Amino acid sequence: MTFDSLGLAAPLLKAIADAGYTAPTPIQAQAIPAVLKGGDLLAGAQTGTGKTAGFTLPLLHRLSATPPVKNARGKHMVRALVLTPTRELAAQVEESVKTYGKYLPLTSMVMFGGVGMQPQVNRLRDGVDILVATPGRLLDHHMQGTLDLSKIEILVLDEADRMLDMGFIHDIKKVLAILPPKRQNLLFSATFSDDIKALADRLLNQPALIEVARRNQTNDAIAQKVHPVGRDKKKELLAHLIKSGDWHQVLVFTRMKHGANRLTDYLNDQGISAMAIHGNKSQGARTKALAEFKSGELTCLVATDIAARGIDIDQLPHVVNYELPNVPEDYVHRIGRTGRAGCQGEAVSLVCVDEQNFL
Ligand code: AMP
User: Fold this and answer.
1) 54 alpha carbon to ligand 1 midpoint, in Å?
2) So what's the pLDDT on residue 341?
3) Residues of the chain with pLDDT under 70
4) Could you say which of 122, 131, 222, 358 would form a disulfide bridge with 339 (CB–CB 3.0 to 4.6 Å)?
5) Ligand 1 centroid to 199 CA: how many Å?
6) Is the beta carbon of 50 within 6 A of some atom in ligand 1?
7) 152 and 80 co-located in one domain
8) Which of 148, 179, 211 is the last residue of a domain?
């Protein structure tokens, strides 16, 4: 199948060709026509499946098919809202909107907390068609009267399961209450817990259903290995794996923030460049670590699950579970960052005796 057969506008096909994509991924092949029809969608898809383009492309197509909605000052009003659980994911989604929308006269903005309000207020004032936001900051703007959501035509909840895990259900309900009732709703989730089903029932009207990877199913392109090791030998084993394997880019998951910091210090002492990202780090420090890791300057990024949510790095060769997560969904999600888009990846778990049950 080709993108041309999906019914997308020429400026989008040109941007897709620029990105080097030759064929739609399975989620794209199903989601794009469904969203173009204008109905609601419930999609089960994990990071790495191409889900972002799966909703961004048809969203851009639909918005570009009708004239912009302008306010009294002649500025574009927000017509599409994408909610994400984390700042990093919001930034990445908005990056995709820009990439795929580069030949269309539509503007986008990313909005999240932890940074000043005023630059966001200024940006909103200039007019925005597509807003990608985390729920808390979105509500802050709404309460201050700096954001008008009355013209929303399309709502996307991305990684809805993680939004619920992170306790955003009340914020989501508040956002739903301020949106116009007549709109298209798209819900993306990697897993379908009862809470997600309840949210979908409330939000979606006769949705099209798409599921590309079954729950807790890992990708065949990922080689999964387990190294049994004593707890106090883990850091030495990790340094050994990185050095002997000549690894240049490895994402390491730890369970705790202080564990991430200690491990980072150890690796740096061993001459392996490492940085940690977790909830206690400032947005600036997280952005810097991620940028250096993506560019290849930094060998090792040490992350907790929440901080790493939504990190999108192409063709990441190695993922290490320094500690196993408590739930299988987190394992699937962690290692899903390797082995993408047809590349072989390796996921290594360092497992000590008291983690046997998790294994
Ligand atoms: P996502 O699941 O949205 O996080 O996307 C995973 C990665 O796949 C991103 O880096 C995209 O740039 C890439 N990607 C998305 N669609 C395609 C496609 N049709 N062909 C090749 N790569 C793609």
Assistant:
1) 9
2) 55
3) 213-220, 309-315, 339-343
4) 222
5) 27
6) yes
7) yes
8) 211
Residue having the nearest C-alpha atom to atom 1 of ligand 1: 50
Q: Is the CB of 341 under 6 A from ligand 1?
A: yes
Can you point out the beta strands (E) in the chain?
41-44, 80-83, 108-111, 130-133, 154-157, 184-189, 208-211, 222-228, 250-253, 274-277, 300-303, 318-321, 345-351
The confidence score (pLDDT) of residue 329 equals 76
pLDDT at 309: 65
Q: Give residue for tokens 């979105």.
A: 138
Angular region, 223: left φ>0, alpha ψ -120 to 50, beta rest = beta
Residue 216 lies in a domain: no
CATH number at residue 77: 3.40.50.300
Q: Which of 5, 13, 21 to mutate to test the pocket of ligand 1 (most atoms within 8 A of CB)?
A: 21
What the block records as the tokens of 97 is 């909107």
Q: Which of 30, 95, 340 to mutate to test the pocket of ligand 1 (most atoms within 8 A of CB)?
A: 340
174 and 81 within one domain:
yes
Q: What is the distance in A from the centroid of ligand 1 to the CA of 254?
A: 26
Looking at ligand 1, which residue's alpha carbon is closest to its atom 13? 50
Q: Is 318 in the pocket of ligand 1 (CB under 6 A)?
A: no
Round to whole Å and give the CA distance between 12 and 18.
Answer: 10
Q: Is 24 in the pocket of ligand 1 (CB under 6 A)?
A: yes
Q: Is 237 contained in some domain?
A: yes
Listed in sequence order, the DSSP H helices in 126-193 are: 135-144, 160-165, 169-178
Q: Is 100 left (phi over 0), alpha (psi -120 to 50) or beta?
A: alpha
8 A C-beta contact, residue 28 and residue 57: yes
Residue 314's pLDDT is what? 57
The token pair at 243 is 């050095």
Residue nearest to atom 16 of ligand 1 (CA): 50
Q: How far apart are CA 54 and CA 106, in angstroms?
A: 18
- The domain of 234 spans 222-355
pLDDT at 215: 45
pLDDT given for residue 328 in this prediction: 82
* CA of 106 relative to ligand 1 center, distance in Å: 22
The owner of tokens 């000052």 is 73
